[in-house]
Design a protein that fits this description.
Protein name: Acyl-CoA N-acyltransferase
Keywords: Acyltransferase, Transferase
GO molecular function: protein N-terminal-serine acetyltransferase activity; protein-N-terminal-alanine acetyltransferase activity
Structural class: alpha+beta
Largest sheet: 9 strands, mixed
Shape: globular
CATH architecture: 3-Layer(aba) Sandwich
Pfam families: Acetyltransf_3
Order of helices and strands: EEHHHEEEHEHEEHHE
Number of domains: 1
CATH class: Alpha Beta
InterPro entries: Acyl_CoA_acyltransferase (IPR016181), GNAT_dom (IPR000182), Ribosomal_N-acetyltransferase (IPR051908)
CATH superfamily: Gcn5-related N-acetyltransferase (GNAT)
Strand content: 25-35%
């Protein structure tokens, strides 16, 4: 089975603890189940600028992942059995998570594509996935990490769950990007109302809350200790 080599940071074979495992997202292996879950739970995409068909196309495109410098992982919940189409995997497909816009020159990346399907929301999945990714990003190389200086988190300003999760890991809010994106269809309650004659009717606007977690926050502000509860193992 080939691995995702689309990004510009070293990609571990997997990151895991006793409850979840993050493995490189492999379209030929994960996409069928991911597509089924996306169609079954369209509310997963409520606050993001893409619909599930666009996300599926992006995740299936090595060209997209490479050009946008993504390191994309599938999240496996080890506490639940794998789906029929994922026989041999270490758990049920719970969602995805990624390093986006990897920038090795400035030692930074965005933590994004955090898509958790409803049966796995409000469980251990999201916090463990984020904790594992942050440890890999911000721990020193001697600790098995990349030693990055900065990790960015962007959230729809109305997405209270995403903002709450960022704050739990001590991300610091730097500001709000007003009318930053448009949302592909969906009710206006997911974003901002439009004026008459807007060129994108039916696509609400999105204010984006901008957060960051930097190495000095990580080592000096308690974030590393919070994340340590997820017990990282890098293979």
């Amino acid at each position: 089975m080939s691995t995702n080599t689309s990004g510009t940071f070293p990609l571990p074979q997997d990151l895991e603890n006793d409850r979840i495992k993050l493995v490189p997202y492999i379209p030929s292996f994960h996409s069928e189940v991911f597509a089924e879950l996306s169609k079954k739970y369209p509310e997963t995409y409520k606050y993001i600028p893409w619909g599930h068909s666009e996300v599926q196309a992006a995740f299936d495109s090595e060209t997209f992942l490479r050009e946008h410098k993504w390191l994309l992982f599938a999240i496996l919940d080890k506490t639940r059995p794998p789906s029929d189409h994922l026989v041999g995997s270490d758990g049920a497909l719970a969602g995805t998570i990624a390093f986006i816009d990897c920038d090795p020159r400035n030692l930074s990346a965005e933590l994004g594509a955090v898509l958790i399907f409803p049966p796995f929301q409000r469980t251990h999945v999201a916090s463990n996935a984020v904790g594992l990714m942050l440890q890999y990003a911000l721990n020193r190389p001697s600790e098995g990490g990349l030693g990055l200086r900065r990790v960015v988190w962007l959230a729809n300003r109305l997405n209270e769950g995403s903002i709450r999760l960022a704050k739990r890991f001590r991300f610091q809010q730097e500001g709000v990007l007003r009318w930053h994106m448009y949302l592909e269809g969906g009710p206006a309650g997911n974003g901002k109302l439009l004026r008459e004659e807007d060129p994108k009717p039916g696509c609400p606007g999105r204010d984006t809350a901008l957060f960051s977690l930097c190495w000095d926050d990580w080592e000096g502000g308690g974030a590393k200790e919070n994340s340590a509860t997820v017990m990282l193992r890098i293979n």
